[in-house]
Amino acid sequence: MEYSTEIHSSEDFCTITADGEYFVQFCDPPVPSFVNDSVDAIGQYDYSITFVIDTSGSMFGEKLKASVDGLLAALAGLSPADNFNIVSSSRKEEIFSQEALPATAHSIARAKEWLMTLRHGGVSSIMTGVQSAIWHITASDDKKRIPLIVILSDSVSDATEENFQIALNSISNSAAERISISALAVGYTDTSSWQFLQRLSTRNRGLAFRLFDLTKFVEIIPEKVDGIKKFSRSLRGLTDVHFSFNSESVADLTDTSFSHFTAGEDLVVLGKFVGKAPAFLNFTIEYRDVEDNLISFSKSVAIKKFDKTGERAETIAKFSAEQSDYNPIRQQWAVTAVHQLLKRRAQATSQSDYDELTRQAAKLSRRFKIVSPVVSFLVRRPKSSANLIDPANENGLREKRSSEIAESHEIHYQYRKLWWRSDEKDELEKTAEESFENNLQWAALTGYPLMFSRKLENSDEKVCLALPGGVVNGRVKLAENEQFSIIGDIRKFKLISVTIRINEDTIKVTNTTIYVDGAPSSSHPFLRTEENFIHFSIPEAKSSFKVHRLGRRLDLTAEIDLEEITGFLPSLLEVESLMLEEITEKHKTAMLWVHGKHLLAHREENCWRLNAGETDVLFA
Question: Residues in domain VWFA (predicted)?
Answer without folding.
Answer: 48-228
